[in-house]
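in:
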């Protein structure tokens, strides 16, 4: 059994201090499946900054997926919106909050100075 790499969530929170999400406030809960086990992670967006914890307020958006998919998205190896479209992630509620978080994921459009996901690299 593996767990979500907590350092990836901490890095996301740190990037929010460098690149605040000023247009949105809310709580996104990640339900990370690993076999029969589900771990909940709360990402709270307030005043532009993301905080991460095991507990949080009532979620405005709930994103569900397996640990491998979350690790891939949070590390920049996969794109969150593409994972939603192919059914690897499921999102309920205010999905716009996940879209706002997307810019903090490595390899996402607008993620200045962060590595690009392999499939999105542009060859010049």
């Amino acid at each position: 059994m593996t767990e979500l790499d907590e350092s990836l969530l901490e890095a996301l929170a740190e990037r929010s201090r460098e690149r605040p999400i000023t247009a949105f406030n809310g709580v996104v809960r990640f339900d990370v499946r690993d076999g029969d086990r589900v771990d909940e992670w709360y990402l709270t967006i307030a005043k532009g900054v993301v905080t991460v914890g095991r507990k949080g307020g009532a979620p405005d958006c709930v994103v569900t997926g397996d640990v491998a998919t979350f690790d891939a998205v949070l590390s920049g190896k996969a794109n969150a919106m593409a994972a939603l479209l192919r059914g690897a992630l499921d999102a309920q509620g205010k999905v716009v909050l996940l879209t706002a978080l997307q810019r903090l994921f490595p390899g996402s459009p607008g993620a200045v100075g962060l590595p690009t996901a392999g499939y999105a690299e542009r060859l010049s």
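note: The first strand starts at residue 26 and ends at 34.
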